[in-house]
UniProtKB/TrEMBL annotation:
Official protein name in the record: Intraflagellar transport protein 22 homolog
Name of the gene encoding the protein in the UniProt record: IFT22
GO molecular function, one term: GTP binding
Subunit text: Component of the IFT complex B, at least composed of IFT20, IFT22, IFT25, IFT27, IFT46, IFT52, TRAF3IP1/IFT54, IFT57, IFT74, IFT80, IFT81, and IFT88. Interacts with IFT88. Interacts with CFAP61.
InterPro entries in UniProt: P-loop_NTPase
Keyword Nucleotide-binding: yes
Top-level taxon in the UniProt lineage: Eukaryota
Length: 185
């Protein structure tokens, strides 16, 4: 059975924990409580199987605290990650700058492919959720960007997240198949 490790990273107060709970169907947290270090949620998704074999997949979602005081823990968090989801609040201008640092640390320096990264512009309840064209500077403008608004359209982000999980599992299956072939030949 494949087990994928997905990191949720991004600036403080961007909505990582709320999204993590929603997407893994964990408990609802209503008040803001900054994540200290990391919170690991294990889950399975019946909609995601590896290749056409129908083998189930397990996921570990690592909800990482956004405070830079945890920076010394980041190398341990990044180890063996298969995917990185960068979550930010598009209504906070400083977040757009900050996500460049998250991308550099967690994607580029870990030599992950851009396909292993998903950007989520998370709109807080009551923010109006303006889904206008977000102008992000390169290399962020090459990443898949999805908007999340749990108030107006929660299913949209759930479907996008499942698509993302499927792409991660497919790339893991392909690399495992390549490894097996290299052993055989």
């Amino acid at each position: 059975m494949l087990k994928a490790k997905i990191l949720f990273v991004g600036p403080c107060e961007s909505g990582k924990t709320i999204l993590a709970n929603f997407l893994t169907e964990s408990s609802d947290i209503t008040e803001y409580n900054p994540t200290q270090g990391v919170r690991i949620l294990e889950f399975e998704n019946p909609n995601v199987t590896s290749n056409n074999k129908g083998t189930g997949c397990e996921f570990e979602l690592w909800d990482c605290g956004g405070d830079s005081k945890f920076e010394s823990c980041w190398p341990a968090l990044m180890k063996d990650a298969h995917g990185v989801v960068i979550i930010f609040n598009p209504d906070i201008p400083s977040h757009r700058k900050e996500i460049e640092m998250w991308y550099s640390c967690f994607v580029q320096q870990q030599l992950l492919q851009d396909t292993q990264c998903l950007l989520i512009a998370h709109h807080k309840p009551g923010s109006g959720g303006d889904k206008g064209r977000l102008s992000l500077s390169p290399p962020l403008n090459k990443l898949k960007l999805v908007h999340s608004n749990l108030e107006d359209d929660p299913e949209e982000i759930r479907m996008e997240f499942i698509k993302y999980l499927k792409s991660i599992i497919n790339s893991m299956s392909e690399s495992r198949d390549r490894e097996e072939m290299s052993i055989i030949t």
